[in-house]
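ok here's Cupin domain-containing protein, seq below lol
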Amino acid sequence: MPMSLDAVNIADKLSQIDELWTQKKIAALNDYEVKLAKLKGEFVWHTHPETDELFVVVSGRLTIRLREGDVVLEPGDLYVVPRGVEHCPVAEEETAVMLVEPTGTLNTGDAGGPMTRAAEPLA
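and the structure came out like this:
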């Protein structure tokens, strides 16, 4: 694959996202995907048995509920949910996040269900 000389502008990519809880792939890094999503409300409790999950809050405020307690993220904060740890993201207001996960990681992990979606490329 030829090398790109184009930078990816995160704000521009976020402006193209209308649907909540849908991850959009904006870059690839080795066997990982860099994804953006807009969140609002409560997601599903789930785990990723095979991988850690990295969240970076771009705007808004994200609470990652864990069985041991909550982690609250403000813009510029990041948190890594360790593999196998059950968690439930919650955004009281619309929140934009960047995620870094192995290619093909499903958003609902082992929970499945109607909110499960594979990451889609964002042009």
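fwiw The chain has one domain: 10-121. kinda neat tbh
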